[in-house]
Amino acid sequence: MTPAWLSRGTARQRRAPRLVVMTSVEEERPRALLAGASRRWVRMLPWAVAFVLCVALMPTTIVVLTADYGLNGGLASGLAVAQAAPLLLAVVRPLHAWYVVFAADVAGALALLTVDFQERLLWPFPPMELVGYVGLCLALGLRERRRTLVLVWLATAAANVGLVFVPPHGTGAKDLLLTILGGVALLLGGALRERYEVQRRLVEQETISEAERGRRTLLEERARIARELHDVVAHHMSVITVQADTAEYRLAALPPDVRQEFTSIAATARESLGEMRRLLGVLRNEEAHGELVPQPGLAQIGQLVEATARTGAPVDFTPCAASGGVEVPEAVGLSAYRIVQEALANVVRHAPGARTQVSLSASDPAGDGGGARLAVLVVNEPPPEPPAGPLEVGGTGHGLVGMRERVRLVGGTLDVGPLPDGGFRVAAHLPLTEEDIT
């Protein structure tokens, strides 16, 4: 079975596509211009410019159109609002704002054909309209793609050239100012946007490279751990297996019970060596399918108890009679096996020779299988004689921590602690239904 610290990494990788989808949905939402800037004043700059242009151009347009061009006040006010107000929308949706402003500018040019104004005044687009339209083109360049910018410029040029054919006072180079200035603004904005895109992609590549370096470092560390385990633990387990297998040939006149003891030691060592090799395979290759190897469960607890009894510790085992035909999930069976294994190992280390009771029981209070739980109980009495010293020194002290983690992962409860008479008790209650397993 894949260790918990490796399975968490796999779970994060499986969740990655969902995060990518969520990110892409957020990117589809309209964002203000320069919203990705790191400095706050840069993010607020488009709003400030749009507000200033709107507040300055709207009254100016009304005054110029009525006083200088002689346009009707109501019509001038309507054109001023249509040409200036959408500039605020341009901060978020510049293309939508362009539709309104472009139509209002063309309508304003046609409206000026109905009045008599001085030849020195600009036509078809007065200065206020030029300023607002150039600012709008700059916003378009910062947001839209090249194809859209080209279409916007062609539409601007077509409208400008079309109006030149019906001038009120003749033609001149100044009649094409909107086309020229709009094209320059679109080109400038597009260049700035593409430069920003190049920098953003460069940052993304650097981030990906950093992630790959971190992943490579992790794989190298896992490979190093695998080498250390192989050189130290696997080597010694192999030596134990060979010595136990050859004991009956090296030592003359071994009693039958001693020969059986060596055979049991060799079998246990080979089993442990097999589990160690599977773990090494997972560490060396993150795509290894060690989790598909059959894992021990309730059926193997009896063998575990027998192996412990052969060490000289009296162990009584009460197997589980499943209640109501409730099946034991694989994760629960493995957790129960590991809890009993660790508890018996602690008895051998810290209370050698103590009588131990191991019992498994399934209960279903509701009788419908919905609340069925497996109770795992390991209780040992005080050792007959206080041990002169621990059988193992330098222990990690992670046994109880591992028990609690296994119980928590399946959604169960664990109760451990010393007894008044000097013994020790380990009690775990594990859910037997898939809905209750977390």
TrEMBL record:
The chain crosses the membrane at residues 47-67, 73-92, 97-115, 121-142, 149-170, 176-192. Its EC number is 2.7.13.3. InterPro entries: HATPase_C_sf (IPR036890), HATPase_dom (IPR003594), Sensor_HK_TwoCompSys (IPR050482), Sig_transdc_His_kin_sub3_dim/P (IPR011712). Keywords: ATP-binding, Kinase, Membrane, Nucleotide-binding, Phosphoprotein, Transferase, Transmembrane, Transmembrane helix, Two-component regulatory system. One of its GO terms (molecular function) is ATP binding. It comes from the Bacteria. This is histidine kinase. It comes from Streptomyces coelicoflavus.
